[in-house]
Specification:
The protein is α/β, with parallel strands linked by helices. It has 14 helices and 13 strands. 40% of the residues lie in helices and 13% in strands.
Length: 383
């Protein structure tokens, strides 16, 4: 009897024993909310992005909403973004009272199409909000050239791009506002959480007020509130995890790039021609390979569900990142619908995320690739 195969998830966090011990030390310290670990984590993150101001938060969603507030984005303003992202990217625009404007994606990179982004600019446009999807940066040179020419702010949704680079520099080392997520399946995790890279001390001070109820302290017994803030701070427990992860980010990124290369090797040079599926862009200079995704051939309704079920039967987990935001009910109610962004709609319907995480091994990649080719080949033969 063949033994049952161990289930391989599409993602899982990897926390080493030294980090677990550091968290235990925090728990024993008596100080578990924002404190010395948060300050240390922020200092290390600032070093990582070339000394720019960095504040940590309880989520990557909070970082984006507060970035919009820091930039003065609000009612009457338009923010251009991509329809392929987690809903948070567009939701935060609504949360500050602004209007989300979508531009379709590039079919190769699956990032926002910068030609279409520029075409969507109107006199009401105040900010560009691109997403570095799967850790692959948008063309940063072109993005910031467009922003400068039109006098626009930029908020980079770099939720998936910690460890990614552009022309040899880390994402976050340059540019305007940059938001990272440290949610559980990110390359660097704090369980939940995120950080925001800002431009100067004044922006950082304002973001810090938004982070904690708008409070400014004076003396030993005085406070004032002059902006409407919330409760968005990171705990020392989370920061201790982040410090342990940050020490390993270079090796994590190198390992993911090696896994991605092995995926291309195992799937084969003729994979697209044989299966009709589309591989990701083979970028090993800029991407941190947060996700490894394929776009399935369109074989009618249920294509993706059938594929994912077949993979699950092989004890292999998959995901999809992401459904097209403009087709979600919240956005349909605002006038969006089918046919408006056809590339995003196809990718949102047919994308599948294959396993990719920090302690995967090459044998795991080989197992996944074998299953993918068998399932797609079988499905093709039945067409």
């Amino acid at each position: 009897m063949t033994p049952a195969r161990t289930f391989l998830p599409f993602s899982r966090p990897v926390i080493d024993e030294a980090t677990i011990a550091a968290v235990a030390d925090v728990l024993r310290s008596g100080w578990i909310t924002s404190g010395p670990q948060v300050k240390s984590f922020e200092a290390r993150l600032s070093e990582y992005v070339g000394g720019r101001p960095v504040l940590t938060f309880n989520s990557g969603t909070s970082t984006m909403e507060i970035a919009l507030r820091v930039a003065g984005i609000g009612p009457g303003d338009e923010v251009i973004t991509t329809p392929i992202s987690w809903p948070a990217t567009a939701n935060v625009i609504l949360a500050v009272g602004a209007t989300p404007v979508f531009a379709d994606i590039d079919p190769v990179t699956r990032n926002i199409d910068l030609d279409r982004l520029e075409a969507a600019i109107t006199p009401r446009t105040r900010m560009l909000l691109p997403v570095h999807l799967s850790g692959l940066p948008v063309d940063m040179d072109r993005l910031y050239e467009i922003a400068a020419r039109h006098g626009l702010r930029v908020l980079e949704d770099a939720a998936q791009a910690f460890g990614s680079r552009w022309r040899g520099r880390h994402i976050g080392e340059f540019g305007d506002l940059v938001s990272f997520s440290f949610q559980a399946n990110k390359n660097l995790t704090t369980g939940e959480g995120g950080c925001l890279v800002l431009n100067n001390a004044e922006e950082a001070a304002l973001a810090a007020k938004y982070r904690l109820q708008g409070v400014t302290r004076s003396g030993i017994d005085g406070i004032d509130v002059d902006v409407l803030g919330g409760k968005h701070n990171m705990s020392d427990i989370m920061a201790a995890i982040g410090l342990g992860q940050l020490a390993q980010i270079a090796s994590f990124t190198a390992h993911r790039r090696a896994l991605a290369r092995h995926y291309f090797t195992c799937l084969g040079a003729d994979f697209e021609a044989v299966t009709g599926a589309q591989l990701p862009l083979a970028d090993f200079e800029h991407s941190n390979w947060h996700l490894f995704q394929i776009v399935l051939p369109d074989r009618g309704p249920g294509t993706r569900a059938a594929f994912m079920e077949a993979m699950a039967a092989q004890q292999i987990g998959t995901g999809f990142h992401y459904a097209a935001i403009h087709l979600l009910s919240l956005y349909r109610a605002r006038g969006f619908g089918e046919g408006m962004f056809p590339v995003a709609e196809r990718v949102g319907r047919l994308t599948v995320t294959l396993p990719m995480f920090n302690d995967m091994i090459h044998a795991d990649v080989e197992r996944v690739a074998t299953a993918v080719k068998a399932i797609l080949g079988s499905a093709g033969a039945q067409r």
